[in-house]
Amino acid sequence: MRIIIALLSGRSITIDASEDWTVDSLRQQAQKELGVGIAKLFGSDTGEALEGSLSVGDAELSDGSVLAAGVRRPQIASSRRAFAMLCTDGTVVAWGDPCSGGDCSGVSEKLQDVQHIYASWYSFAALLGNGDVVTWGDEDHGGDCSAAGTLKKIEASGRAFAAIRTDGSVTTWGDPAFGGDSDLVKEQLHGVCDVKGSWRAFAALREDGSVVAWGHPQFGADCSEVKEQLHSVVRLDASGSAFAATRNDRSVVTWGDPEFGGDSRAVSQDLIGVKQICEGSKTQGSLVD
């Protein structure tokens, strides 16, 4: 079948594909022929991003289907003493203190078709188009990962990473004291749709609107005092040592270190009709009606 891939500029190509091709292989072929980095393919009718692991048939594409290509933009991430830049061709360049991830030469051959890069304090993680992860930097603080499964999102704490697999489960690595060990809540980490990290803890949002937290209790890993309120949650945000959960009635629940926004009781009457909570640089503020 013939699939048309179009850029926003109006430039397009036609690719001859079979039903057993994956969306990701279609994206990579379009990337080669168009000569630009393509992060995602979108349905022209729905505007929704197509899952890369789906076959062309399962994605319900047919002869003459038109897909929009989302061009990859440069991205820079920073650890405490180093930078890493995702280039438009899907490769990565790093510089700075090698102990903080400033040298990625040891994994440069693996850093191809990178979709996003993430930074902890002393290491980096790169998510590839096929769902694999490549890490470098301090091995004890997130720079060494053997995560199994196809990943779709990664989040960092100060010295660890947490990643959501495509099946909704979660894998973690790095310093256990910073959330790098989630074994105690492993059975609860299913149906996860989002994860956020404070400096030393993580919180995961499940599809049923509940929340699971782990890591250091003083940095937001202990949500027991507000557990009964953590239902119907639609969004999570994090500061350095606390978390905020927005519920579908647009109210807000907070927990963690009070000095970092973990206690919102003084403004609870104002936290009604919340539209958005802004994290900033691990600081918080909210926008209400």
Automatic annotation (TrEMBL):
Domain Ubiquitin-like: 1-74
Database matches in InterPro entries: Ran_GTPase-activating (IPR051553), RCC1/BLIP-II (IPR009091), Ubiquitin-like_dom (IPR000626), Ubiquitin-like_domsf (IPR029071)
Superkingdom of source: Eukaryota
Protein name stated in the entry: Ubiquitin-like domain-containing protein
Species: Symbiodinium microadriaticum
